[in-house]
Design goal:
Layout (H helix, E strand, L loop, with lengths): L12 E3 L2 E3 L5 E3 L2 E3 L14 E3 L6 H7 L2 E4 L7 H8 L5 E4 L6 H14 L4 E5 L6 H11 L3 E4 L7 H6 L4 E3 L2 H5 L25 H30 L7 H32 L10 H14 L4 H24 L2
Parallel strand pairs: 3-10, 4-5, 5-6, 6-7, 7-8, 8-9, 9-10
Antiparallel strand pairs: 1-2
Helix pairs in contact: 2-3, 3-4, 7-8, 8-10, 9-10
Bound molecules: the ligand C=C(O[C@@H]1C=C(C(=O)O)C=C[C@H]1O)C(=O)O.
The ligand C=C(O[C@@H]1C=C(C(=O)O)C=C[C@H]1O)C(=O)O binds next to helix 8, helix 9 and helix 10.
Length: about 325
């Protein structure tokens, strides 16, 4: 077995005001690539910036919180080396078809050329989430997943252990001017660019789609993070934020539960409070106590009585009883 399969605790890398790799997963909505975005996209305070050439590096050092070694040029070693030595955290994208060993090898090279602050990043149209999980555990480096091409993978990426999601900066800012393309889909991707009439519309569509995309990513980080991401908050604000995420997940589940309980009321011969089934309620509590042994049956029973009664009230209200 390769030694890269050893598992390491994942360290944290600060990127601007974000801590990537410890605590909650983050959403990064501003990744700029000077290979495709206009130079003006590199505004002060941008989080991630990818150079087109070495000439871009001084401006990136001045304006960006981290430099991206992009998937399309991981073999341009002089540029990789210059980017890694810039003094910023380095985000190392996996070249499509690169193996985990190649990816981690490049990350280690960047760590050696720089000050060691390296974050892995997986992207493309079909991000390999199993590889993200394995690479993160094997290297101890935090990992981001760029879900711009398929926002529907946001929840899966967080579940796979991603320390953050990147959503395309074009979708996040909608800075288009002029006519051109403005596409917004249900999953929230959009770009606005061009010159002439229709610009505002294109930019507006891109902005709306970008905001929707951000909500999808934030939702995944919050709800899936609350369910699956290990956290040991050390401060009062961090702990309260962690509780807020758990409450968001709870509210989502409570609403879902109330809908299901409402369907049951319509399916039973006698619904509502009149058809209350205390045996079934006891079974519900007993099963939950297996998952929540610290709370135990008697505390859970009080909680679930309130939950069940709220569901019955809602069902009766809706049925006009
Ligand atoms: C949903 C039902 O109706 C009532 C509500 C329950 C619940 O919310 O879990 C459980 C038992 C019943 O008192 C059911 O019978 O399953």
């Amino acid at each position: 077995m390769s030694s890269t399969l050893e598992r390491h605790a994942v360290g944290a890398v600060a990127v601007g005001g974000l801590l990537v790799g410890a605590g909650p997963a983050v959403v990064i909505g501003d990744r700029v690539s000077l290979r495709t975005d206009p130079p003006a996209a590199l505004r002060a305070g941008v989080t991630l910036a990818e150079p087109a050439t070495a000439a871009d590096l001084p401006a990136i050092a001045e304006h960006a919180a981290a430099v991206v070694v992009g998937a399309s040029w991981t073999r341009d070693i002089p540029l990789v080396r210059a980017a890694a030595g810039l003094g910023l955290p380095v985000v190392v994208e996996r070249r499509a078809s690169a193996s985990m060993e190649e990816w981690l090898g490049l990350a280690a090279y960047c760590a050696g050329e720089g000050d060691g602050r390296v974050i892995l990043c997986e992207g493309g149209s079909r991000p390999d989430l199993a590889l993200v999980r394995a690479a993160r555990a094997a290297s101890g480096r935090p990992a981001l997943v760029d879900v711009s091409a398929d926002l529907g993978l946001s929840a899966a990426a967080v579940a796979a252990g991603a320390d953050g999601l990147i959503i395309d900066s074009g979708t996040g800012t909608g800075t288009g001017t002029g006519t051109g393309t403005g596409t917004g889909t249900g999953t929230g991707t959009g770009t606005g660019a061009g010159t002439g009439a229709g610009a505002a519309q294109a930019a507006g569509a891109a902005q709306a789609a970008g905001a929707a995309g951000r909500r999808v990513a934030e939702e995944a980080v919050t709800v899936v993070g609350a369910l699956l991401r290990d956290e040991t908050p050390a401060t009062l604000p961090e702990c309260r934020q962690a509780i807020d995420r758990v409450d968001a997940a709870l509210a989502t589940l409570l609403e879902r539960r109330a809908e299901l309980a409402g369907i049951v009321q319509r399916l039973k011969p006698v619904g509502g409070f009149a058809g209350r089934d205390l045996g079934r309620e006891r079974d519900v509590v007993a099963r939950m106590a297996v998952r929540a042994p610290a709370l135990g049956e008697s505390r859970l029973s009080a909680i679930m009585n309130a939950v069940i009664e709220a569901g019955l009230h809602l069902a009766e209200e809706r049925s006009g009883r």
